[in-house]
Amino acid sequence: MTQTTTQSHYPNLSTHEEIVSRTLSVIVDNEPGVLARVIGLFSGRGYNIDSLTVTETEHEKHISRITIATKGTPMVIEQIKHQLERLVPVHRVHDLTETGQPLERELALVKVQGKGEKRIEALRMAEIFRAEVIDASTEHFVFEFSARSSKVDQFISIMNELGLVEVARTGIAAIARGRGLV
């Protein structure tokens, strides 16, 4: 009998190491290839990215902010942060989760198809969740919904039972609470 083992950067469950979720803010130069280098750091080491958003935030200075949601042991998270800090186009890495509960939002566009009672129920649930109808016909709705990712998941789960057709999600946008600058 041959036993095979696989290497993983995630802990063996028998070691009882805690897996934590972290939201990282990475301030970088906005230049070609930077995002690929950041993603390459994760994929090359077997780390997973749960959510990724990026956009230029300071147009005059050509600075972008990459927001990354990831999971791992505290040791793995520290490794990720230190390796990101060593990349040349990275100005700073800030663990938003470490400094308190960051403000996080995700935008979702949710297309639901249905008639009769399911259509009425979809509209009622959208109103409860404060989702906005941005497109409609006699057979479908497209809802725009912005909330924490867990709330977006909940809304999508409900719409799945009511005729969900398609979902587009932006990924997390996050910022630290309070006065401090990241």
Automatic annotation (TrEMBL):
Coiled-coil ranges from the UniProt annotation: none
Keyword flag Lyase: no
UniProt-listed CDD domains: ACT_AHAS (cd04878)
Catalytic function, reaction form: 2 pyruvate + H(+) = (2S)-2-acetolactate + CO2
SUPFAM superfamilies: ACT-like
GO biological process: isoleucine biosynthetic process; L-valine biosynthetic process
Superkingdom assignment: Bacteria
GO MF terms, alphabetically ordered: acetolactate synthase activity; acetolactate synthase regulator activity
Pathway(s) per entry: Amino-acid biosynthesis; L-isoleucine biosynthesis; L-isoleucine from 2-oxobutanoate: step 1/4; Amino-acid biosynthesis; L-valine biosynthesis; L-valine from pyruvate: step 1/4
Pfam families xref list: ACT_AHAS_ss (PF22629), ALS_ss_C (PF10369)
Presence of the UniProt keyword Transferase in the record: yes
EC number, as in UniProt: 2.2.1.6
Keywords: Amino-acid biosynthesis, Branched-chain amino acid biosynthesis, Transferase
InterPro entries linked to this entry: Acetalactate_synth_ssu, Acetolactate_synth/TF_NikR_C, Acetolactate_synth_ssu_C, ACT-like_dom_sf, ACT_dom, AHAS_ACT, AHAS_small-like_ACT
Domain ACT residues, every copy: 23-98
GO cellular component: cytosol
Assigned protein family: Belongs to the acetolactate synthase small subunit family.
Subunit-level organization: Dimer of large and small chains.
Biological role: Catalyzes the conversion of 2 pyruvate molecules into acetolactate in the first common step of the biosynthetic pathway of the branched-amino acids such as leucine, isoleucine, and valine.
Annotated protein name in UniProt: Acetolactate synthase small subunit
Species assigned in the record: Candidatus Filomicrobium marinum
Lineage of source species: Bacteria, Pseudomonadati, Pseudomonadota, Alphaproteobacteria, Hyphomicrobiales
UniProt gene name: ilvH
